[in-house]
Structure formats: structure tokens, C-alpha cells
């Protein structure tokens, strides 16, 4: 147990975000294998043999979750998701079969958003527009994230024009323990379906509206006093754990905890919606 207190609330960083997709789109004609192959990116380079660390997961969530992309070839909405093998071309026969069995979640040229990332022992699941296994309205989640990939209590009603309305899940299957990869490498593995180039980051749009001192802290991946919860998520990602307790004078505090001993561990303490203290160990 990290600390003692009257109440303890713990959330894991890799816990699934709940989202859903609307239905009702009509499946367009399936492109031929030769057409699809023209938009296929070159095979990804072999990944490192080292396993993905908690810090690596944080970097991926912080830099990829919430990002927008243009669709390169039709995204299947098949459940539980469509599998990609890093370093190998997309199985066009499997893709055509998936598109026949389920309506395309999005077609070439559509704008989509990464709405959740889940880490398995041998794979990374990337949910797009709520994923292919939704549980509640994905539109609400996208609306919340339209001003940044940082959930808030107020729903933003605007969303980018052309945003597709069905969900899809791409499963990057390594066939072995997930290697330690960078956000850029994950985007490279998704390139057969998603083009992130030229799409303005939702996070960047939001960050540029903040006070300069908070902009600098977020760019440096540092939490500072005065930040709100959204700013901390922008700077550090989602916390590994959260602990609530009361001080002797009855004030309720909440610690967001990043990392685990013996590695660097950061405690970000909130009172209400604002950061009042940041501590790092060792």
C-alpha cells in the first residue's frame, strides 16, 4: 500500500476506456487487392528485443491516444478487431473477408481519432472512434476529446468535419512479448491504415490556449503546481494509481502516482481540481 488514508481509489493505467460506435453506415464496394496494395506502406523494421516498459506505455498513451489520422484503406469494424503483423504486408484476403462480414468503420480520406490503447502480453490494441466493441456512445467520448485527449465533465459539441461514425480496432500482434517501441514506431505499424502526417494534434490545439508556463511544463512532460487534471494528463499521461485521503484538518486530497519503485515514482497531489504539490522519488 502506497499510503494510508480514509479512502483509497486505485485505477490501472491500462484499464479499458469505455466507448461505443453508432451504426447504420452502408458498406461501399470492396476495393481489389491490387488497389489496396498500392496504398500499403513498406514493412516496418524489426522491433527491439527488449520488452515494453511502463514508461514506454506512458509515452505511447500520451503521444498516440487522442490523435487524429486520415484513413488510407477501409477500416473493418469486425469484432474483436483486425490483426496486423509488424514487418509483414496486410493480409488482403483477410481484410476483404472482414469488410464483407462487417460494414467499414471508415473509408479512405475519412478523419478518425485514436480513442483508446490497450496493452496485452503480445499485442497492442488500438481503438479508433470507440473501437469495434463499444459499450456506450463513442460520439460523447470524441466530443470530449475534440478539445484534447483529456476527459472533462463538459461535453464539447463540435467535432472535426468528416469524422467517421463507426468504430474499429486494429490489433498489432507481435507474436511474442511486446517489444520496447516508441510512439513513432507504433504509428509506423498502423501506417497501412492510418496516415498521421498533416493531421493537427488535438492535444496541441488545446495546449496552445493555456498559460505559457503550463505550455512549457507540458512540453517538458512535467507537472507543476496550479495545473488542473487535464493539464497533468497532457504532461504525464494517465496515472498508474490514484489515492484519496483526508488531512488532519479534514481537507480531502488525491494523489496521482506515476511509476513504481525501484524506478522513479512521481506523486502529484490535488486539492479539488488543482495541483498543490509534486514530489519525485528517488
Q: Would you give an account of this structure?
A:
This protein is of the alpha+beta class. It has 2 domains: 44-199, no CATH class; 210-281, Beta-lactamase Inhibitory Protein, Chain:B, domain 1, CATH 3.30.1450.10. Helix content is 23%, strand content 22%. It contains 8 helices and 12 strands. The strands form 3 sheets. A 6-stranded mixed sheet has the order 3-7-6-5-1-8, with helices on both faces. A hairpin with a 2-residue loop joins strand 11 (265-271) and strand 12. Helix 7 (212-219) runs parallel beside helix 8. The protein is elongated and about 65 Å long. Residues 1-48 and 136-164 have low confidence and may be disordered.
Could you outline the blueprint of secondary structure elements for this entry?
Elements (H helix, E strand, L loop, with lengths): L32 H6 L15 H11 L3 E4 L3 E2 L5 E3 L7 H10 L2 E3 L4 E9 L3 E6 L9 H8 L22 E6 L9 H8 L3 E2 L6 H6 L4 H8 L9 H8 L4 E6 L5 E7 L6 E7 L2 E8 L1
Parallel strand pairs: 3-7
Antiparallel strand pairs: 1-5, 1-8, 2-4, 5-6, 6-7, 9-10, 10-11, 11-12
Helix pairs in contact: 7-8
In short:
This protein is of the alpha+beta class and 282 residues long. It has helices at residues 33-38, 54-64, 92-101, 138-145, 183-190, 202-207, 212-219, 229-236, and strands at residues 68-71, 75-76, 82-84, 104-106, 111-119, 123-128, 168-173, 194-195, 241-246, 252-258, 265-271, 274-281.
Amino acid at each position: 500500500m502506497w499510503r494510508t488514508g480514509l479512502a483509497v481509489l486505485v485505477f490501472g493505467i491500462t484499464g479499458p476506456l469505455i466507448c461505443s460506435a453508432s451504426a447504420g453506415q452502408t458498406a461501399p464496394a470492396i476495393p481489389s487487392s491490387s488497389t489496396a496494395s498500392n496504398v500499403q506502406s513498406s514493412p516496418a523494421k524489426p522491433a527491439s528485443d527488449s520488452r515494453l516498459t511502463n514508461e514506454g506505455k506512458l509515452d505511447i498513451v500520451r503521444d498516440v491516444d487522442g490523435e487524429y489520422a486520415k484513413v488510407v484503406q477501409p477500416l473493418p469494424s469486425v469484432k474483436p478487431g483486425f490483426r496486423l503483423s509488424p514487418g509483414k504486408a496486410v493480409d488482403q484476403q483477410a481484410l476483404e473477408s472482414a469488410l464483407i462480414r462487417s460494414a467499414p468503420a471508415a473509408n479512405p480520406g475519412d478523419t478518425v481519432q485514436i480513442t483508446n490503447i490497450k496493452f496485452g502480453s503480445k499485442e497492442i490494441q488500438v481503438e479508433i472512434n470507440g473501437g469495434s466493441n463499444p459499450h456506450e456512445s463513442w460520439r460523447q467520448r470524441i466530443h470530449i476529446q475534440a478539445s484534447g485527449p483529456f476527459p472533462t465533465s463538459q461535453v464539447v459539441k463540435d467535432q472535426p468535419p468528416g469524422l467517421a461514425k463507426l468504430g474499429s480496432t486494429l490489433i498489432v500482434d507481435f507474436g511474442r512479448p511486446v517489444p520496447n517501441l516508441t510512439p513513432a514506431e507504433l504509428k509506423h505499424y498502423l501506417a497501412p491504415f492510418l496516415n498521421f502526417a498533416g493531421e493537427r494534434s488535438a492535444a496541441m490545439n488545446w495546449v496552445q490556449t493555456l498559460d505559457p508556463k503550463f505550455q512549457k511544463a507540458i512540453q517538458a512532460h512535467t507537472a507543476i503546481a496550479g495545473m488542473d487534471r487535464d493539464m497533468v494528463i497532457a504532461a504525464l499521461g494517465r496515472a498508474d494509481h490514484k489515492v484519496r485521503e483526508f488531512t488532519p484538518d479534514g481537507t480531502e486530497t488525491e494523489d496521482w502516482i506515476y511509476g513504481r519503485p525501484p524506478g522513479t515514482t512521481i506523486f502529484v497531489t490535488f486539492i479539488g481540481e488543482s495541483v498543490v504539490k509534486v514530489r519525485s522519488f528517488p
